[in-house]
Fold:
Amino acid sequence: MAVAPSPTGVVSYRLARERVVDDVRAGRRTRLDVCDASAELRRVVEHGAAPTGDTCPICEDASLVLVTFAFGPGLPSSGRAVMDTADVTRLRQRQRTTICYVVEVCPGCWWNHLRESFPFGRRRLATGS
Ligand SMILES: [Zn+2]
Structure:
């Protein structure tokens, strides 16, 4: 399930992603190093992933999907997978700070990389301004 981020507070991990892809293409890292989706991540991909239409940069065969994990007070320390619209509604109604982490995953080779993170829900993080 993909969760739409709030307009502010989005952190992109695009540059780190490009570095990993470059490392694989240059032979500095192998597919074994980066195609390491955990059993839990694979389970979430099978039941709650959103398609992207983007081709995997590692195997260049399968289409990437997005999965979202929510972290915050009252949630499991390993995060809670956002599987469906009911989960999104529950997150939106939380009074406590929630941070969503969106991971892109290839269901073909199991490459995975953190794509972005953002605060989500009724209560936003303080910005200090
Ligand atoms: Zn792949």
